[in-house]
Amino acid sequence: MTINAKICGLSTPETLDAAVRAGASHVGFVFFPPSPRHLARERAQQLAARVPHHVARVGVFVDPDDALLDASTSAGDLHILQVHKTSPARVAQIKARTGLPVWAAVAVKERADLAAAATFAGAADRILYDAKTPPGAALPGGMGVRFDWTLLQGFRHPLRWALSGGLDPHNVAEAIRMTGAELVDVSSGVEGAPGEKDVAKVQAFLAAVQAS
Ligand SMILES: O=C(O)c1ccccc1NCC(=O)[C@H](O)[C@H](O)COP(=O)(O)O
């Protein structure tokens, strides 16, 4: 089975190009001002223009309003929208408004959290299981927090899905083995500092995924 990988929160041409060259299937651009990975629209457009057609460009949002969605999608350079802290009803609206596939993040700490995945059936195109960040944390994602992957074992997934949260070049093979993920997503595990991707770590992560 081919396992795909999304490198999230890319913000420079050098690291974006490195992720593409090393085999990322998806690249993520964050549109959330409190994040160290936040991109202004113009910057995102410049980066998106560098991405070859076989690599999917994912816009990452936190419960976006229509104005942000419209501004972010008007150039037509996003293929997928990934939304955090967004209700199923709003996910359905976003999909209808933009005509784009939508991935809904489900924040996981304990088994009961997985029940939220089913509420997105008929609304989202994919579930991104991500670790629940601590109460009061600045960000709902991109914090390098992982959850207990055994929670996904035997779980009947209501939709296609991806695994995220605290992955890095050293643990991603084990995460894939334990969960059977067909798509993995990483941000801080391939950074040298918050918001600064490390090319060697990006390459090591993608090599570990490809060897799985
Ligand atoms: O990365 C961010 O700054 C971010 C901000 C707000 C919402 C989501 C965000 N990231 C979403 C992602 O897809 C991350 O890759 C995912 O949460 C995993 O992050 P990490 O645990 O750091 O690998």
Automatic annotation (TrEMBL):
HAMAP family: PRAI. The lineage of its organism: Bacteria, Pseudomonadati, Pseudomonadota, Alphaproteobacteria, Sphingomonadales. InterPro entries: Aldolase_TIM (IPR013785), PRAI_dom (IPR001240), RibuloseP-bd_barrel (IPR011060), TrpF_fam (IPR044643). It comes from the Bacteria. Residues 5-206 form the N-(5'phosphoribosyl) anthranilate isomerase (PRAI) domain. GO terms for molecular function: phosphoribosylanthranilate isomerase activity. The keyword Amino-acid biosynthesis applies. This is N-(5'-phosphoribosyl)anthranilate isomerase. The gene is trpF. Pathway: Amino-acid biosynthesis; L-tryptophan biosynthesis; L-tryptophan from chorismate: step 3/5. Belongs to the TrpF family. Its EC number is 5.3.1.24. It catalyses: N-(5-phospho-beta-D-ribosyl)anthranilate = 1-(2-carboxyphenylamino)-1-deoxy-D-ribulose 5-phosphate. Keywords: Amino-acid biosynthesis, Aromatic amino acid biosynthesis, Isomerase, Tryptophan biosynthesis.
